[in-house]
Write a structure and sequence with these properties.
The chain is mainly beta and about 150 residues long. It has one domain: Immunoglobulin-like, CATH 2.60.40. The chain contains 1 helix and 12 strands. Strands 2, 4, 5, 7, 11 and 12 form a 6-stranded mixed sheet that branches. Strand 11 and strand 12 form a beta hairpin. The longest helix has 8 residues.
């Protein structure tokens, strides 16, 4: 039964991620944030367990506190309905970063992926999956001077 379910949903996106970086044009040592808007297919929920993670690919231009984040790291609200817990993606997820002093001038692409456990209570299935995302940004050759 599980193989059939995976086959049915292989071509459908259970979870869509829209990624953006703000500000889009950055100076070296400037702080910014990655914003992820997550949309879940109707009738599907994303469980907090097993662990929901956002993984960021290594970047020469952006410095993050770490390279992966869990739902609890990001303080994503957990809701409950009919005894089932699920993550609330009403608000965008924001991950802070600093632009590296060694960042080369020009356009860059940040890539990452979301690993999640999706369930449909109505159709009685659950599966583990991954959705990739990317966002482009521009780095200037100037250095951001912090205000005192």
């Amino acid at each position: 039964m599980l193989l059939l379910i995976i086959g049915l949903y292989a071509d459908e996106e259970l979870l869509k991620v829209e990624a953006s970086i703000s500000p889009e044009r950055l100076s070296r040592s400037q702080e910014g944030k990655v914003s992820l808007k997550i949309k879940v297919q109707k009738g599907v929920t994303i469980n907090p367990q097993p662990v929901f993670t956002i993984e960021l690919s290594p970047s020469d231009a952006l410095v993050f506190p770490k390279n992966f984040f869990t739902a609890s790291d990001l303080e994503i609200e957990i809701l409950e309905k009919d005894g089932e817990e699920y993550l609330n993606f009403k608000e965008p997820i924001e991950i802070p970063f600093t632009v590296s002093l060694d960042a080369k001038r020009g356009w860059h692409v940040l890539e990452g992926k979301v690993k999640y456990f999706a369930c449909s209570k109505k159709e009685e299935w659950c599966l583990k999956s991954t959705t990739k995302f990317s966002a482009s940004f521009y780095t200037r050759s100037s250095i951001n001077k912090k205000k005192k």
